[in-house]
Design brief:
- By secondary structure, the chain is mainly alpha-helical.
- It has 22 helices and six strands.
- Strand 3 and strand 4 form a beta hairpin.
């Protein structure tokens, strides 16, 4: 097994697999578009970062900007009660906006890469929505850029300084929180403990020296009524100006005092270690390919990806290009090897049925808040990762993505499907229910029961379904009538597209099929 370029047939099957792994649910048209390109063109199109509009004010607690305008650079009220209400309003706006971006994803990897980096760095919501927005946008816009630069930028980001107490780390009162996570979780990774305080890739000396190197930063402007953004400041009197010595894992390097530039010099030293590329490429592999690292993968795949990352000075784009165009990525044994996360579950139901929320600003954001809460009920509170290590499903061996499923969360998945496709979900006076008619009309041959089921399975089920499963879904669609009856029924609807007598039965049959699909074990895998 190797990263030899894929030279097999480029069909809808390969295109669908690529999109299931890189989008929050592809549409039938997106699969068709990708399948009609060459593999290299398809991958290049996906590996882009789209621009997005900022979150907007919509809640009555926002009193500093008009409804419908953004608050990302707005002041906070000086009155404490109004300040708190304003923060709550902005948190709701930001949370809804994050879900809206996933629903309105284009045909690019930006939202999935954002998810990857948000899990990697694992910072929870700060006490200032503006700071959190800036931090999250850093992750999103840098998702395909240089990893070394991203680590440097995250290190001084106000939200991260607040989250891991970097803003209280000083020569007088050292704080090792960020220094430890920088090594253990963000760059080189914690290996086996081979001696007291020695974790194969770094030691406690490195943690202590790192905290001295990273000292001297403070954050100002949190929920300020006079400053339009949270800001990171370097204060030399708070910085440890001594020379810092690192362990033998870093060649016993000495980091001289360099004031505000010292942190960057230290990160450059960390990134001189090949293990950094191995650690990050392992996370990429588990996120996009498979959590199961076989001996073959650890011997041939991860080292090759790491070498590509090092050869490109830690740019991530060439690594993903190599991975997504490799023979290995399209190995049929990897189809359906990862259990969908709650976000992939929610948004595949919406995005792949071409359901985008578009009522009015307040209603849209309230709907997206409820979608957010649905994902949280299934185990993924997106704005607040489970820990600084991210969600356990991405790192906890041996279960990994199987941790998304238990007796409670599977019921939420099933209830969500039934709510969206059968009964509707009431939200603040609006009923959220997927209209399956536009979805049906955009399939390859809506008048053919077999073709409809083939297209639905292609969208939602990673592995080919057996004949019995296919026939069972056809029978749901046709209500156990001969297939030609579906053709007649669909054509009657086409001839009477505004008559509920003909429209509603067609819509209902497709709703029942999708409800069944979303409760199948095969659907839970991508």
């Amino acid at each position: 097994m190797s990263l030899t370029p894929y030279t097999g047939a480029w069909t809808r099957s390969e295109a669908a697999h690529l999109l299931r792994r890189t989008l929050f649910g592809p549409t039938h048209q997106q699969i068709s578009s990708i399948a009609n390109m060459s593999m290299n063109d398809a991958v290049n199109q996906l590996l882009t970062i789209a621009s997005v509009n900022p979150p907007l004010a919509y809640d009555a607690g926002e009193t500093m900007v008009p409804q419908g305008q953004t608050w990302i650079n707005a002041l906070y009220p000086s009155n404490p009660n109004s300040n708190q209400l304003c923060e709550m309003a902005r948190v709701k706006s930001l949370t809804a906006w994050l879900m809206q971006n996933m629903n309105y994803q284009g045909m690019d990897i930006s939202q999935k890469m954002f998810f990857f980096w948000h899990n990697h760095f694992g910072a929870a919501f700060s006490s200032d929505a503006r700071a959190t927005y800036t931090y999250l946008e850093l992750l999103r816009t840098s998702g395909l850029g240089n990893v070394k630069q991203l680590v440097k930028d995250v290190t001084l980001d106000p939200a991260m300084l607040l989250f891991l107490n970097g803003n209280t780390n000083s020569v007088q009162h050292p704080n090792e929180n960020y220094s430890r996570e920088l090594l253990e979780l963000f760059t080189i990774g914690k290996g086996d403990q081979i001696a007291a305080g020695d974790y194969s890739n770094y030691t406690e000396l490195d943690v202590a020296s790192g905290s001295k190197i990273l000292s001297g930063y403070v954050v100002q402007g949190i929920r300020s009524s006079t400053l339009t953004a949270a800001q990171t400041l370097f204060l030399n009197p708070l910085h440890d100006t001594s020379a810092k010595t690192l362990s033998y894992h870093f060649g016993n390097a000495t980091v001289a005092n360099a004031g505000a530039q010292e942190y960057a010099n230290y990160i450059d030293i960390i990134f001189q270690q090949p293990q950094v590329a191995t650690f990050i490429c392992t996370e990429l592999y588990r996120f996009f390919v498979n959590y199961d690292l076989t001996n073959d993968v650890e011997t041939n795949i991860i080292p090759a990806l790491a070498q590509t990352m090092i050869a490109n000075n830690y740019d991530i784009l060439p690594v993903l290009q190599e991975l997504f165009t490799s023979q290995h990525f399209y190995d049929v044994a990897l189809l359906g090897s990862i259990i969908r996360s709650p976000l992939e579950t929610v948004f595949s139901m919406l995005n792949s049925t071409e359901t985008q929320i578009n009522v009015n600003l307040a209603t849209d954001y309230n709907i997206y808040l409820n979608i957010y809460y649905a994902a949280a009920n299934m185990g993924l509170d997106f704005i607040n990762p489970a820990s600084v290590a991210g969600w356990e499903a991405f790192y906890l061996s041996p279960s990994f993505s199987r941790l998304w499923i238990n007796s409670t969360t599977i019921k939420f998945r099933f209830d969500l499907a039934t709510g969206l496709f059968v009964f509707g979900i009431p939200i603040n006076g609006y009923t959220l229910k997927v209209d399956t008619i536009p979805f049906l009309n955009n399939l390859s041959l809506p008048s053919s029961a077999d073709a409809v089921i083939d297209d639905i399975c292609e969208l939602f089920i990673a592995k080919p379904v057996d004949v019995a499963t296919h026939d069972d879904l056809v029978n749901i669609l046709t209500n156990n009538l001969p297939n030609f009856e579906w053709t007649l029924q669909y054509n009657e609807y086409l001839n009477n597209p505004n008559n509920p007598t003909f429209v509603d039965p067609v819509r209902y049959r497709v709703q029942l099929v999708l409800d069944r699909v979303f409760k199948m074990p095969q659907y839970q895998m991508i």
